[in-house]
Amino acid sequence: MAKVKRKSTSDLIISRPTEKERNEKKISVTILLDNVRSARNVGLIFRLADCVNVKEVWMCGITPYPGFTEHATNQINKTGVGGSVETVPWKHFDKALDALNEAKRKGLHIICYEQAKGSSKWPVKLKKYNLLLVFGHEIKDVSDCFIENNDEVIELPIRGITNSLNVALCASAVLYEILNQFDDAG
Fold first, then answer.
1. Are 151 and 122 in contact (CB under 8 A)?
2. Is the pLDDT of residue 184 over 80?
3. Strands ordered across the beta sheet of 27-34
4. What are the pLDDT digits (tens) for 121-146?
5. Is residue 3 part of a domain?
6. Residue 11 falls within a domain, yes or no?
7. What is the pTM of this model?
8. What is the domain range of residue 123?
9. Average pLDDT in the 155-180 region?
């Protein structure tokens, strides 16, 4: 049996990468939260984005963002602990179409995570490094403009009676799989 020693909070703080090290290991992924309702989910995704070291978090439509309201900002900061809101670049678009146009202008490979006929089944081996990952509203789904203008739609398997995953859980599974693929690719 291997000897394991837990890392203390002090050990973890001391071992944090510098800004230069973070920039060198950044993965070419932008997360888009398309009309996600919960500020707490937004905070969790900021925390996740920091942990896997993505380029940016974009939000559009009704998605709460830092500074949206005092309550939303408090909820985002509460679940996005560790300074993730300050370390992960972010942008808000009033409309999904504005975010789509920006993604096209930047040449991003657009992947929607959605339950849809004709979708690819997760996990999918991704070959593009300049990705926009679109996660949508729990009931209203990803905006039509993304469903009509994407490079790929991927569906995570649901095997139980619950018909969907929470957006932060879905994003976690997806991002850690992508991180694993990108690390394997060198």
1. no
2. no
3. 90-93, 54-60, 27-34, 131-136, 109-113, 152-155, 120-121
4. 988 888 657 999 999 988 888 999 99
5. no
6. no
7. 0.93
8. 24-185
9. 93
Could you tell me if residue 9 is inside a domain? Answer: no
Tally of structural domains, the chain: 1
pLDDT for position 65: 97
Residue type for position 183 = D
CA distances to 45, 65, 139 from 36, rounded to whole Å, are 11, 10, 10
Residue 151's nearest CA partner among 102, 186, 123, 113 is 113
pLDDT digits (tens, 9 = 90+) for 18-54: 989 999 989 999 999 999 999 999 999 999 999 999 9
- Which amino acid is located at 1 in the chain? M
In a domain, 1, yes or no: no
Query: Which pair of tokens denotes residue 4?
Result: 């394991």
Plot region of 116 (φ>0 → left; ψ -120 to 50 → alpha; else → beta): beta
How far from chain centre, in Å, is Cα 126?
A: 16
Q: What is the CATH number of the domain that holds 66?
A: 3.40.1280.10
pLDDT, residue 183, reads 79
